[in-house]
Fold:
Amino acid sequence: MLQQERWLSLQRKADTLWQRTWDRHLRLAVTGLARSGKTAFVTALIQQLEQAGFSARLPHWQVLQQGRLLGVQQVVQTHQHIPTFGYSQALSMLAADPPQWPEPTQTLSEIRLELRFRSQNLLRQKIGHDVCHLYLDIVDYPGEWLLDLPLLDLSYAQWSAQIREQLQSPQRRHLAEPWLKAGSHWSASQPFSSVMDEVKNISALYTQYLQDCRSQLGLQSIQPGRFVLPGEFAGAPMLQFVPWVWGLPAESPAHDSLYGLLQARYEAYKEHVVKQFYQKHFSGFDRQIVLVDCLQPLKVSREAIYDLRDTLGQLLQSFQYGNSHWWQRLFSPRIDKLLFVASKADHVTPEQHPALLSLLRELVHSGLSRARFEGVSLECMAMAAIRSSEYHQVDYQGQPLTVLHGVDLTGHELALFPGVIPARIPEPDFWRNSSLRLTDLRPPVWQSEQARPHIRLDQILEYLLGDKMQ
Structure:
């Protein structure tokens, strides 16, 4: 039995190598920060692919419109150590009464699809081998994990200095008071054994601080990312450390001192969590889509939207750019297409979509020039993977006004104009006089076997898969 399993594993690896050689295997990574809609996006994407040619409406996906798509089905994934994406559970939640959004992404998961189509290649058609296969691995992972990649270039002292700089913000400083006060009596040179339990408790307070920064201030630049989404490392000692912000050590602390052990755990975190994620997963992605909730910071503060801009800049620095030629796919896979998507486009009226897209482009502007210089294809779109609203025009003071209709998370029906979305990062007056009425919406009532309505999901499919299905 064991020998048979090994043989099957070797067969799968050989098959994957063959597929990558002939450009018939694509690893598409999906990420985004909290509340960006990753799980809903992956669920909708799979269902639209399965329903292509049936209930799905995908007018911009050329392989379907040209009648060359033969079918899509889920197949056994080759990475047995990665949890399978909970597609059926997510569909069940969307089809519940009342409908519910799927559980948010907590750890890395994967699902494999086989897409079968007829090639446009004339040589393939002449020799009768025009039926092709594209094996698509969709990998879903928390965007917070990406924020840890810059730590690989930072020592413990450098990272601690960055956190001290962040604490110059009065709002951050206020939220940090519990863990700052709890560690105020610490000395860098004291024996670690004397405060072992305190370290565990203060690291928990630091984790709560990170969560409060996200929930109360709308901030996204939180490190270490695994503190808030630990995945399989929950409870591990290497997730029990804090930055040193109580003054600089007078001299180089001993390895068994408090500072020395905090530094050692930080280095262990980099080695066994951050570097392992990069080597095992991130470095093998071919294409990447990043979901961005641009609307949430508009509801909060100017600091929140600038924090989002800086966070997206960090994400852009993490990607390996470059054209993915076939030999690179075998030996050094690199991301050759990167798509940033402003999610929840259904929460605003259609005429606001250009402004939403313009705002997203400004948020990622700092990384655009580098990406183009390196030859990567980078695009921005505004999208709703599952459209939760309808739009109607009404007469308002003698002028036509588009009004959004939907159901909020408490079950109340809404009919409102959500406001004007700024096309650029707004000035402080925007928040002092904001008229935005942005509300989270419940998914629509829909039959589980039918593809749900969307906004521009077909354009995303064409951008990410179109050149692989010629």
The radius of gyration is 24 Å. Residues 258-280 form the longest helix (23 residues).
